[in-house]
Amino acid sequence: MRRTQSSTPEEDRLWEMMLAHQSEAFSTSKGLAFTYTIRGSEVFVSRKEKSITRATVNVAYSRAREMIDAGGVVDGPKKLGTFGASYLYPIFIKLGVLPPPKSDG
Question: Residue 68 in contact with residue 96, Cβ under 8 Å?
Answer without folding.
Answer: no
